[in-house]
Design goal:
- The chain starts with a strand and ends with a helix.
- It is of the alpha/beta class.
- Helix content is 43%, strand content 18%.
- The longest helix has 13 residues.
- It binds manganese (II) ion.
- The site of manganese (II) ion has 5 residues, from loops.
């Protein structure tokens, strides 16, 4: 089992880019297209990390984060905001809202792996350990 990451993003191009990149780095990926679906998939899959767009139909990222933080079982999951907002103060608003970090779009594909590893707390040792425990 590798780390599972949930992408919550309504823009299909961005979602596919992120999904392909994360899969390339060996992560298991689950995808949702709005905040409400993201909450349901977070409960179902208990991902190690959520990457959450801000502007989405049905339910935006701020509302989804607030619900996740107040929901038993998923409240402690790391959530990184994905946003194209570029004005000063946005980063503070996002961190004040309770996001663990912020990644500006377009995503810098060279920096993304390091940011993810930082929030997962370590490199993929869990993958190695479980692989070893299962006899390789
Ligand atoms: Mn969006």
């Amino acid at each position: 089992m590798s780390w599972k990451i949930l992408i919550v993003e309504d823009n299909e191009k961005n979602r596919i880019l992120l999904r392909d990149l994360l899969k390339h780095f060996g992560y298991e990926v689950v995808e949702a297209v709005n905040g409400a679906e993201g909450i349901e998939l977070a409960k179902e899959h208990l991902p190690a990390l959520i990457m959450m767009d801000i502007q989405m139909p049905v339910m935006d990222g701020f509302t989804a984060l607030k619900t996740i933080r107040n929901t038993a079982g998923i409240g402690d999951i790391k959530v990184i905001a994905l946003t194209s907002f570029a004005m000063s103060g946005d980063r503070e608003n996002i961190l004040d809202a309770g996001f663990d970090d912020y990644i500006a779009k377009p995503v810098d594909t060279r920096k993304l792996p390091e940011i993810i590893r930082r929030h997962l707390g370590k490199t993929d040792t869990r993958h190695d350990e479980e692989t070893a425990a299962n006899g390789g």
